[in-house]
Amino acid sequence: MAQFDYDLFVIGAGSGGVRASRIAASHGARVAVAEEHRVGGTCVIRGCVPKKLLVYGSHFAEDLKDAQRFGWTTEGATFDWNILRDNVAAEVNRLEGLYGQTLGSNKVEIFHERAVLTGTNSVQLSSGRTISAANILIATGAWPSVPDIPGAGHGITSNEVFSLPELPKRAVIAGGGYIANEFAGIFNELGVKVNLVTHGDRVLRSYDDEIVDKLVQISRHKRIVIRFNFRFKSIIKQDDGSLLIENTDGSTIETDLLLWAIGRTPHTIGLGLEDIGVQLGKDGAVMVGEDNRSNVPSIYAVGDVTNRVQLTPIAIREGHAFADSVFGNNPRTVNYECIPTAVFSNPPIASVGLTEAEARAQHADVKVYKSDFRAMKNVLADRNERALYKMVVAGPEERVVGLHLIGPDSGEILQAAAIAVKAKLTKQDFDDTVALHPSMSEELVLMK
Ligand code: NDP
């Protein structure tokens, strides 16, 4: 008779939790997972996937305009938010079903309810049932932050934005990070008057300054209003349903929708972690070592709840490494160096490695190569929008330590180039590669 009901109990069926459950089960572990919302987690249900589909959907506004220069008649084309929203929701439902099937076919038991810890080896489900497990994995992700100011509840977050009953005429997006810039692009393309307001003097702080400056310049050209150093004082709901946003400097903005996109906080409130002595960071993150183990030996955590790198592919790798290490007799850790990332703004940004400023702080001998160009299709479309590719190299051998792109499809272009940066190739290696012509990616091997 086994000592515990399960070898592994996972709390949270998002990207990290699902991967960990499936791999642990494939190694022969008896696994159960509890999910209080929907299987798939933030990325599939209310993050990367529906967002990317909205990016595609909204971009047709520009594509249809540009198509006319390519000989197409697009007059009379109309847009229906309900159709896009409902089709995206249907795709999310389909993926949720697939995730559930994957767990089922790997014999992972799913409890569609909340679980909280009641001991170092036990959890209680909201139905009241108590379950014991040799190991417990916390994979509860993160939750959108909302500031503690009067009327903040009149705003929505990325949790609600995918199911808007109708598109607003005006939107204020609070924040200057990933979600703010991505939704500024989506809403603006769909004809919403967008104000992006952030509290600091920069947007996308972790990205290369010049690339970000280019995004700000292009966004403003596309009529997105960007305001820096904005301090929210209060939000007042007016009689006509609109919102009045007050800045601490006395200025106000009137809007129909306020989207909070000011960061995401590890989702640990009420999980019972502190009661059993699990060490949490000041933001509530579960503190773990590189083996994903907390200070309580039977409790592990992966993904956004650990607040190391809040990205889906990282949560997946952490979940996989955890399962291989604990149940597959194959101890592995995740390498966090050279993680390629993209912001699906309009145009998108993609980046890997060190920014120019970071490289200069870390290396004595830094050089920057650039290509500032207009994509061929933008030329014919008469769209005065330039792309910028930037390569940061260090040392006498000119090793590429950073690549930063803004321009059409930059996320698609960067992934392959990121392999070269990760493999520590040099500028000469790029130059030795024959250009694939005509393409935007050929600029990577033609930089001056
Ligand atoms: P981010 O951490 O990316 O950005 C938060 C932004 O909000 C920053 O610009 C910050 O400014 C600003 N901010 C913070 N507090 C306030 C405030 N009180 N008033 C106004 N502005 C404020 O958060 P997101 O919510 O956009 O995204 C959360 C995480 O989700 C990201 O970090 C990312 O890891 C992940 N994500 C990834 C995506 C992708 O890979 N494409 C897409 C979406 C999300 P400052 O920097 O000056 O403090």
Structure commentary:
It is a single chain. The protein has eleven helices and 21 strands. The protein has helices at 15-26, 41-46, 48-67, 81-105, 178-189, 209-221, 312-327, 356-362, 376-380, 410-422, 427-431; strands at 6-11, 31-34, 109-111, 115-119, 122-125, 130-138, 142-144, 170-174, 193-197, 225-227, 232-237, 243-247, 252-255, 257-260, 264-266, 299-301, 341-343, 349-353, 366-373, 387-394, 399-406. The strands form five sheets. Strands 1, 2, 3, 4, 5, 6 and 16 form a seven-stranded mixed beta sheet that branches. A five-stranded antiparallel beta sheet has the order 17-18-21-20-19, sandwiched between helices. The model has no long low-confidence stretch (mean pLDDT 97). The chain is an alpha/beta fold and 448 residues long. Bound molecules: NADPH dihydro-nicotinamide-adenine-dinucleotide phosphate. The site of NADPH dihydro-nicotinamide-adenine-dinucleotide phosphate has 25 residues, from helix 5 and strand 17. Residues 147, 174-180, 182, 198-200, 203, 205, 232, 261-264, 310-311, 341-344 line the site of NADPH dihydro-nicotinamide-adenine-dinucleotide phosphate.
